[in-house]
Write a structure and sequence with these properties.
two-stranded antiparallel ribbon, single chain, elongated, 95 residues, mainly alpha, 39% helix, 2 strands
Length: 95
């Protein structure tokens, strides 16, 4: 791909950048290197290679979701500083 000044100006415009001449030249070189590298990647034969989801083998570390018996309402309210009609009583915080 030909990376000319017009293309660099268009990319700079899309990115809302205003590079000076030195920055434009650096962008042109970097973009050329990136495209060369992509060209090298495209030349690799990957037909016999299975696609990977992850580069390393991973195991699920989450436990199975099981219900367990919890504490009773009376146990939960046993240490409450104030309770009323089976609920925690807390100070009003919204006027």
């Amino acid at each position: 791909m030909n990376i000319n000044e017009k293309l660099i100006n268009h990319i700079a415009h899309l990115a809302r950048l205003e590079p000076n001449l030195e920055e434009k030249e650096a962008l042109r070189k970097n973009l050329a290197q990136i495209l060369d590298y992509i060209g090298k990647l495209k030349s690799i034969d990957t037909d016999k290679i299975e696609p990977l989801i992850h580069s390393i083998e991973m195991n699920n570390v989450l436990r199975e979701d099981k219900t367990k018996p919890g504490i009773t309402r009376e146990q939960a309210l046993s240490n409450a500083p104030e309770k009323e009609a089976g609920f925690f009583r807390v100070p009003k915080i919204i006027e």
